[in-house]
Known about the structure:
There is one protein chain. This protein is an alpha+beta fold. The protein is built from 15 helices and 22 strands.
Amino acid sequence: MKNKMSRGEFIRLGGLSLAGALVSDVVFANDFLSENKKSKEDTELMKKLILNNDAKVTSLLNKPYDPSIRLNSFRTVASSITVMAASMCNSESGFYKSEILVEKINEAIEVLLKAQYSDGTLDAGGNRQSPPDTAFILEYICPAAAILKNSKQKGLDELKDKLKKFILNAGEAMITGGIHTPNHRWVICAALANINSLFPDTRYIRRIDQWLAEGIYMNEDGHYAERSGIYSAVIDKALITMARLLNRPQLLDIVNKNLTTYFYYTEPNGDLVTVDSKRQDQFMDLKVTNFYLQYRYMAIRTKNPMFVQMVEMIEGLSTFAADILSGSLAFFMENEELRKQIPAEGAIANDFEKFFALSSLARIRRGKVSLTLFGGNDKPVMIVSGRSSNPNFLMYRKGDAILKYMRLSTSFFRMGYFSSEGIVKEGNKYILKETKEADYYQPLAEEFRKNDGDYKLSESPDGRFWNKMDFDSRVKSNVKKQTTTIEITEDNGILNLDFKVEGPPNVEVTIEMCFKEGSNVTGAVLDEKQNYFLKSGNGELSTGADTIQFGPGKCEHLNVENLDSEVYTYHQGSLRTKGEHIYITGFTPFYHKMVIS
């Protein structure tokens, strides 16, 4: 929105009616719509979409659905309907008016109708009779229905009727059904907007307004509540759908801000920074292709050179054909805006330094060097969806040479990895700091004692374990504290790191660097478990012509097992990933300086 927000403020768009757009947004929309009418179609892209969609249809026909196998997710079935409908209804496709596809789409729709419950929902994985998962299915089915609705091909009445039956049944679930997570609200709203565009019903609009009345959260960093690459792409797509189909262009202001943020979160090779996510993708590899349709729509609509550059970059990725071209034709056919040529080339500077204070995340780009600093985990750190808990505090790239992450762990009461309590920025220096506390406990006072010893099962105040000890009634003693401070100074892509770990003496300290698997390592010693130790001097990591230098090293112990904390090791779990692992080790009080370049 155009009004200033205070830190952490909610963007509230509640109770918006179809006629409730802000005047400035209406002008914004009309200006661009009037110019976009003159835009030519991107015929070359459309040819590629048709060609790749036809190839996908061929693969679907060569791998028919086996009705004897019970599915636990129906997105692949829904996607196949969309892909086949697009080729069947596109006059340039090799499958145009294909009777075989009519038959196959009918079979696929029957699968969905058979699986659909009387309340209109479908199952998805462990989610039983799930309204939001059904909404994700409608993301595919409604564009297919729109394409078929406009088709002049004969003999499609039965197919159209089946789609209508499925959609209207699902619509009842969308009107009354509940959700699990923040993004589900907007996915359901988008589904309702899609259904309403096909089969108008005021009940759909009322339900959309009921969800929108809760407000769409976005902080000053440009993040939605889940701070997730997966779900930001989902929400942006949903808001674009609502803006477009319900004539609510003010929703695009939010999309604009989030897409701007993800410009800075994108690596030159299309990888997304996910370390600060509060959902499952904080430990996943994601590509920016998830945002392609969103960037393209907004580039055409706003002519923002940043978005234009993102479209061009994504179209140049090696994964573009598989991720986008093979399954997106239907969305271009259903939304003519996407078919238009994007404006002139984007010209955004490749060098930047961007600090996202609310996320405690910094992104810096200096030519071939791209780096990420992170210190924004939720406290206390908990391993659960909805909370940020990734221990990676530094990621560094120089072309194809990639430091996937740097972590620090100590043996202090086996409390695991360093997890900074935010980031303080002082000029070109970033300061990360954490204090861990571990306690001992005194005998219970007389008034809390029980003859049978059957005390309350409770969590220890330091969060390390549970026991029938009634910890809340005990006095803490012999309290131990450990403070870790990491100061990182950046100068034209060169990092100077200063580590300080202070507290009880003789605690093992381990700095862990994980480089991209298959990289060539020199200067470090390899042990029998394929771990490298940088014992002194400098090390070098190379991939092709690109290199990263790091050091000096230090090696005072070789214990690099169980760095994750008791939370993981008790369950035989680990956060260790694939890659070339290099360690620097010492004991407290630990003071070490090193350079990465």
